[in-house]
Amino acid sequence: MLLAAAAATTSAPPVGAVYERNLTLPVLGGQRVRLRIDSRTRATLDLEGALALRAPVHYALTDDGYFQFVLDAPTHALLRRVRTRLGAAAYDAVADTAHVTVHPPLPFPVVVRMARSTH
Fold this sequence. Notes:
119 residues; mainly beta; 8 strands; disordered N terminus
C-alpha cells in the first residue's frame, strides 16, 4: 500500500492538463498563475496580473518525485526584477495538483498549490 501511494505521488502530470491558482501578492496585488502541460518534458507558464508572462518550461521528473526545470532568460529577468526565485516543484497525482515553492523577498518561502483547471 505504501509503495503504491509513493509511486502515485511521483508520477508526471498528464499531458494536456492545466493547473492554475489566483493569488494576492504583497505589494503587487492580484496574480493568476497557470501551468499547461504540453508534453512529458515541456510546459507553458502563464502569469497574468501584476506580473505578465508566457514562457516555456522544460522539465524532468527526478527519482525523489520533484521536477528539475529550466526557465528561459525573460522569465529569469522578470523574477530578478521582483527579487523572487522559484524553488522546488512537484506534482501530487493523488490530489491532481501541481506545487511550486516561491522564494519572494519575504523571510519565508511560499508554496503555491495549483489545482487542475476544469476549463
